[in-house]
Amino acid sequence: MMNLLLTIKYPVQEELAAFKQLFDSALLSSNPLLEEALAHIRQRGGKMMRPILIFLLAKNFGKVTSSTLHAAVSLELLHTASLVHDDVVDESTLRRGQLSVNAIFNNKVAVLVGDFLLAAALTHAGKTNKNQIIDVISTLGKELADGELLQLSNVSNPDFSEKVYFDVIRKKTAALFAACTEVAALSVGAPEKGRSIARTLGEYIGICFQIKDDIFDYYDANAELGKPTGNDMHEGKLTLPVLYVLNKISDEWPKKIAAKVKTGEASQKEIDRLVNFTKLNGGIQYAEEVMYKYKDKALCLLNEIPDPDIRDSLTSYLYYVVNREK
């Protein structure tokens, strides 16, 4: 899979190097405490999945510009800020296998670091000198908060609703990928039709990405994966695999445990039991089938891309998202 990622990155490796330099320079401060927290974030690294997508789409419509670069940095800073704040909300101590900011420091520091990242994101949005890009990024900021609040309010909802699940992931993950592909098109002056196709493509990729992430949570703990089995349930989240099973079966005990998951009262033993029940009753298979439907929708949109090299890279990108192992 790593070889596939290298192949995907190949057409935009110069742009990614420029992005990394600009992104790291945004994570600097003369304040010792803030710098310590930012240094922790800088050394996380990551696969740069969103910047890769932005640069590939921008190259499809034209030539990567300064606006493209600043838009990519702005979106990654906004995304990073939302993760730092989410870890406080969810009381998470791990983020992709490393200690979260709130675990190393405390909630107060984490919230303020997140605020700093949000301000830095706005700075780079302004440097795109394109009001439409600023609008997309600011709208995304609202959607990310809206999605988190929707997830929190769902705790009191007695139903096990797939609709609410998709509402949440559209706001929290699909909206992020859609913003990436839309700003890519905007940054190089793509026509309205191209911008619309780009945004829809990003949304489909984002849905695939989140469903795959949710499936990971039903398998054995893996340090590289970054979260232990059932971690979503520990945070009160019921994702697509278990929602499908809860709505399919008539047994009462899984529903009782699921209700306790929502209120944060389920024990580890109960969570393990519900995870296993989900796997035994086709929850993972169902979630994969839904993910593959969105993958096929995305592939149809990729047929609209004229440049064969960019189309091949984006196709490989999509296959990487649905086939990755972490």
State the separation between the terminal residues, measured CA to CA. 10 Å
Tell me roughly what share of residues is in helical segments: over 70%
Structural class: mainly alpha
**Percent of sequence in beta strands:** under 5%
Question: What is the number of beta strands?
Answer: 2
Main β-sheet, spatial strand arrangement: 1-2
Average predicted local confidence, pLDDT: 91
The biggest sheet, with number of strands, parallel, antiparallel or mixed sense and barrel status, is: 2 strands, antiparallel
Q: What's the tally of helices?
A: 16
Which regions are unreliable across 5 or more consecutive residues at pLDDT < 50?
223-227
Order of helices and strands: HHHHHEEHHHHHHHHHHH
Calculate Rg over CA atoms: 20 Å
Shape designation: globular
Report on this structure:
There is one protein chain. The chain has 326 residues and is mostly helical. The chain contains 16 helices and 2 strands. A two-stranded antiparallel ribbon has the order 1-2. A hairpin with a 2-residue loop joins β1 and β2. α4 packs across α9 (162-187), α12 packs across α14 and α12 crosses α15 (283-302). The longest helix has 26 residues, at 162-187. It is globular and about 55 Å long. Mean pLDDT is 91; it is low at 223-227.
Topology:
Blueprint: H1 2-9, H2 13-26, H3 32-42, H4 49-61, H5 66-90, E1 94-95, E2 98-99, H6 101-104, H7 107-126, H8 131-153, H9 162-187, H10 192-216, H11 231-234, H12 240-248, H13 253-263, H14 268-280, H15 283-302, H16 308-323
Antiparallel strand pairs: 1-2
